Each structure stands twice: as structure tokens, then as C-alpha cells.
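Sequence in, structure out.
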Amino acid sequence: MNLLYNMYARVGIANPQSMNLSIMGEYHDYPPISEKMANPFVRCINSVKFLHYVFSGRSAMKKFSTLLSKVHFAKTASYRELYKSIDANIALLDESLIYHYASSAYSGSATSTLYRMVDKYFPDKRKYQSFLSHLLSNIPNIESADILSRLQDLASLIKKQEPGAVGFCADELLRYIRNNAEANAMHQAFLARHGHRCIKEAEMRNKPWRDDETSLMNYLLSIIRSPMSLVQKEGEIDYKKEFSFIKNPLLKAAAISYAKKSRQGVVDREHTKSQLIQIIDLFKTQYAILADLLVKNALLTDADLIYFLTHQEIGQLIDGKSSLLPLAERRRKAYAIQEELSFDDTYIGKPIANVFDVEQADGVMKGVPVSNGECEGVVHIVQSAADANQLQRGEIMVAKFTDIGWTPYYSIVNGLITEIGSSLSHGAVVAREYGLPTIVNVKGATKILKNGDRIKMDASKGIITTLSK
């Protein structure tokens, strides 16, 4: 973040607080700008260069399909040859990340620019964040919103054809789908479009839904057993009405233009994220095959250890550096502990894990409103897929974060609270499309709130009130 803040000294349109808003989803104090301010001409030239990069995000979308066709792995039973094949494709994985970052920069920068235009009209920054969440709702063609829509359609079909499906286990549901032509066709269409996705989908260690259908069936069962059905909101934004508080016609026109860019940026970002995960999925498959070959040849004691070595270290292991195995074991043990830690969004120097009091002082917590609405419900802390499978309809899901893998549960819960997130994060994007009240950046939510607490959410103001314990 220090590097980004220092852009302000060299790029005329850069602004520290707008960066905080677009990247971290809320306002933060920032350290003094350490660099000397460049002259206005240099800042102007750099602004043009920066805008050129930002708006290259849209063209980056078109490059993904070409990139996918370039990724090719050798079919071989030799672990050395397979490693060389993966190594030869690593540059393409890096390239795909660059394209996605360009798309994300377009989305974030359009929102940041909009912030700079209208910031002065919102002394209360939470009201601005609520306004922004409203402005970024009702966006058609969002890739991740399609996941829940398709699963709800499949669940509806199954409930209509087989009411007894509410009592199925995951294996029974999968057998039913495979033996039902219409349901199987919908299921296969879902896998063709979204089968490469899952919880923590960018991690090589996590299996995609295509290879872990038990998890997918559990998601589907949760929807089948719930009478609730989220419906994606429709309707156009009345931009002139939304920006009626701006009297300057030129400023109003510019704000409307960047509001449209912000909305399109959300669509582009979600689309390129899906394409990025497709490419990562190709590497997941190859690393899994490589792990099995290394176990077969006694270079690994178990296949899971491959995920606790870097790509370069795997090459060193193949070349005979067996001392890396104890290191991988230590990393795997440490990972379980690290998963439980929570840190401040920003820090200088060595990060120190937070320790939260089990009771709030006044029974009120605050966060960032990203999907407006009010609701009440019982808290259900979700740390894993197993926790999520226990969700009951009408509960409020509280998690450290959400990603694409949690989407199916949105049709069950009354509201969503996360410790990490922003108005452009996946959880916020999908929640807005289905009108699910959502508050993010609620520090220590999974530690302070407990299963069974009854709370009230005012997601238009970012306020959570504990009603009873």
C-alpha cells in the first residue's frame, strides 16, 4: 500500500483514500507521502499512462481465450518430463494473472475515480458506501451470479419431480441426477460452465466442483431443503435521479459515465476471474498427477505434501534434495494454526495477530455496508464447508471471508457478515444481485459473535446489534 500511496506524488489522478476504498473497501489512515511531489507536467503524463493501463482491462478479457488454447501439458508417465512440462507453462499462468489484474484495475479505478468526483457530497462516509452498494446492484450478466441461478433451477426441478429428495444424502442425490435425463442435462451444463470453481478456488490444493461432486451435492441439498428462493433483481438504474444531488451538468455527466464504467468493471472482473480459475484448474490437474507420480517413486511420503512446496522446490526435490520433505511437513502443521489467526488490514513492520474480547462493550459492531437491507436472525459461524453444510434457513452466516464456493448458501441465509471484503469483492457482488443484506470488514466477527446469538443487521448503515445470547 505504501507503494500505491506514493503514486500520489507522481500520478495526478492518484489519491490515497480512493485507493483505500477500491482495494480495502473502507477508509484508512495512511502514512505521510515519502516521495517528493513531481512537477505538474510529469504528473499529467503519468496520469495518461495510468489511464491507458486501467482501460487496457477490457482488452485483456479478449486475450484469455487465446491464452487458454496455449496451455498444453505433455502426456507422460515420467515425473521429470511432467515437471518440465508444467515448468514450460508457468509463464502462461503468470500472464493470466496479469490480465486479471488489469481487469481488476479497471474495475477498482473506475470506482475510485467516481469516489473522487462525489466524495464532497457525502460527509458521512458510510452513507457514501451505502450509496455505492446501491449503485453497483442490478447488474446483468455477472458470471458468479449465474452459479446460484442455475443451482436454484436444478433444485426446483428435482423438488418438483421427486419431493422425497429433501431426505437424500449427497450420494443418493447424485445417483438420482445421473438417472434423470432432464436433471442430468442441467447438471452437466452447470459443470461445463462452473465445474472448475470451488471454495478457495485459487489454491492448488482445493479440488474443483467437477472433481468433488460430494461438496456440490451438499450445496444443492441445502437449496432443495430450503423453501426460500433468491431472485436476481432486475431493472435499470436511473442515473439522472441517482446523481440529482450534483448540480454542475459537466460533473454530473462525468459521474454518470464513471458509474457506468464501474458497473461494467464488475462484470468484466468476475468474468476474467472465472477464466483465470480455468487456467489454474489446468495446473491443479497436472500437479495432482505429478504428486501421485512422486509418491509412487518414493519422492513424497504422501501426495498432499506437494502443496506445501513451491514450484521451484518441487524441482529441487526431483533433483534429490530430500531435506525439503521435513520443511513441507512443518509448513502443513503451521498452516492449520495460521488459518485461525486474524490481522489488521494494514500494518507497518512485523504483523501481530489480533486478540478479540469475547464480549463487545455495548453489543454493537460496525462494518462496511455493501448490500443494503435489514434483517434479524441467529448467528451461524462458518469456518469450513462442513460448517456451511449445517446452515439452517433464516440464519445469518458469519465468516472470515466468502468466495465463489459459498454462493449456493446465499439462498438459505437471511444475511451475511464477513471480516474481510469490499464493495467489489465476490460476496458483495453476488449478494447485491439477490438483495441479500451484507456487511463486510467487521473485525473479529467470527470471534466475538457466537453460534446461537440473535442479532439484527442494518446493512444500509453497516451496524450489527446483538439482541440476545
